[in-house]
Give the backbone structure.
Amino acid sequence: MKCILRIGVLTLVGVVLCLFIFIEFLLSDLNPDYDEKEVRQLQSGVMNAEELPSAFLEVYAQVSPIVTTKGILYDWALKNYDNQCPCLNVVGINHHLYYKNYWLFGNRYIMSLKLERMVSQEECLSFLVHHYDFLYGNTDIYGAARFYFDKDFNDLDRKEFATLAIMLRNSSLYNPKKRPELIEERLKELGID
């Protein structure tokens, strides 16, 4: 019995060790499936994105708590789908990076983990809001602020910031022009008036 238990424990340790080594290989520069040049270009774009005002970051964190890619995977395992990972979303909007090796399980997550080693989640969020489709031809947050509120982005109030942050979850579902009741319901849930 002790022999079987010992073999089981050694097998489990071996599997965990192999999985750890495989994940580290996927994240390393030795992985031939990822072009470091593309990752560096994405990093450069993220780092050059215009910084967001702290008032928006505060509201965004209330609407969608920011976690890392590892945190998202952990939360999803626990069936918690409320949190957002801006770096994961940035990789998702850069389709050439996401679909390059679509056969490789977790390609988007590996790319996001690589990106997170170089930039912060706030930097990814800044890039994301400047490249996100807010509908009606508004592909950045400044255009969305003008279109939905007829104001400059920096002049928005807390509720308007929250509306744009909610739209970042799914702009088609949370469309203020077509479904204002969903926005109002979500704002009430969050206690934002």
Remarks:
- The mean pLDDT is 85.
- The chain is about 60% helix and 0% strand.
- The CA atoms of residues 30 and 99 lie 20 Å apart.
- The radius of gyration is 20 Å.
